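Researcher: We plan to redesign the surface later, but first we want a full-length starting point. Tokens attached.
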């Protein structure tokens, strides 16, 4: 009788183990690599900045073509429209009044207008639900195999909602905070070409 109980013990213990398992890093690393290589996508939504004197909300359209990001911010945030072009280290910002600035002056103009320096180069990747390559990051994976949070370049980023897009799943809400500054993005429409 004792022998039978000892033989059954591993089966009983296995049955008591939780059904959820940690996300395997192999599939996550493959998914992350695929998203890093995504070169053509577009979204429309809303952006809100709070914790700064000139905070507010606005509409946003982001189009990614290869390494070039074209971003339009329009509405109340910053009291007017902005057109932002980012390609590598080159940054160009143009206002609705026709004022145009480049590189460091553009970064400062954005920080002045929006109330905070925004990590645009990293944001391109955060919008896809991954950390930006080439910069150290701490990632927190949810049980669904997707990123639920990350910390990178002093920003804490949370992915609070995902939605199905063209056979994939992409972020619908992204919340990034650094110090007292908080940037919230609600994506209402994705156009996505799977990598």
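Model: Full-length starting sequence:
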């Amino acid at each position: 009788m004792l022998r039978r109980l000892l033989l059954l013990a591993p089966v009983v213990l296995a049955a008591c183990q939780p059904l959820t398992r940690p996300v395997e890093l192999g599939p996550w690393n493959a998914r992350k690599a695929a998203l890093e290589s995504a070169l053509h996508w577009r979204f429309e939504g809303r952006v809100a900045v709070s914790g700064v004197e000139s905070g507010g909300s606005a509409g946003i359209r982001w189009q990614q073509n290869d390494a070039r990001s074209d971003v339009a911010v329009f509405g109340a945030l910053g009291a007017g429209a902005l057109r932002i072009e980012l390609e590598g280290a080159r940054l160009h910002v143009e206002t609705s009044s026709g004022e145009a600035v480049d590189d460091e002056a553009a970064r400062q103009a954005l920080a002045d207008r929006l109330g905070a320096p925004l990590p645009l180069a990293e944001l391109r990747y955060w919008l896809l639900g991954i950390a930006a390559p080439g910069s150290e990051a701490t990632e927190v994976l949810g049980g669904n195999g997707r990123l639920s949070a990350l910390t990178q370049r002093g920003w804490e980023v949370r992915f609070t909602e995902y939605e199905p897009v063209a056979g994939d799943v992409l972020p619908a809400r992204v919340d990034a905070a650094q110090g007292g500054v908080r940037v919230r993005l609600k994506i209402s429409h994705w156009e996505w070409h799977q990598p």
